[in-house]
């Protein structure tokens, strides 16, 4: 009988260690959720009306935009994105809202457009090098390729003429 209780105690300890490892393992693989950018309030966004609102009323309702179009102040953008990652993996977008408010030259709202995840671009680099245009040169071409080019015409060498150098240049 004493042997049976000793084995059951050992079994309980092993079960406790296994459960502890399972709990630690699952907590390390917790999904991480983050929100970036503008907090979209559907009621406020729906209250912006073309032909009624202007820049001042949109700023009062929605706040300052995430960014403004680069060429003039025609469009205001409000960007909101929810991301999710598992432990140490790269975060992936789960939900995205891009709200574009377009203005006319007088500053009145012309249109309010909504876009989602379809605007997320997945850029996947190929290989370890970036392809470039131009000549493919070896290491030796790079090192020894300019021999004889120093002082050649059109290469900026010391071949007379030009601005500021000689008696006719100044």
TrEMBL record:
It comes from Sphingobium lactosutens DS20. GO terms for cellular component: outer membrane. This is Outer membrane protein assembly factor BamE domain-containing protein. Residues 37-110 form the Outer membrane protein assembly factor BamE domain. Keywords: Membrane, Signal.
């Amino acid at each position: 009988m004493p042997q049976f209780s000793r084995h059951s105690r050992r079994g309980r300890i092993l079960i406790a260690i296994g459960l502890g490892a399972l709990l630690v393992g699952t907590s390390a693989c917790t999904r991480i959720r983050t929100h970036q950018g503008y907090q979209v309030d559907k009621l406020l966004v729906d209250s912006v009306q073309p032909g009624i609102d202007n820049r001042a009323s949109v700023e009062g309702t929605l706040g300052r935009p995430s960014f403004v179009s680069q060429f003039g102040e025609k469009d205001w953008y409000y960007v909101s994105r929810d991301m999710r990652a598992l432990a140490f993996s790269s975060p992936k977008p789960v939900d995205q809202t891009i709200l574009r408010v377009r203005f006319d030259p007088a500053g009145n709202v012309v249109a309010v457009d909504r876009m989602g995840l379809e605007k997320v671009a997945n850029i996947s680099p190929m290989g370890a090098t970036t392809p470039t245009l131009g000549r493919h040169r070896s290491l030796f071409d790079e090192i020894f390729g300019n021999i004889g080019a120093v002082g050649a015409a059109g290469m900026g060498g010391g071949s007379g003429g030009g601005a500021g150098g000689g008696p006719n240049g100044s």
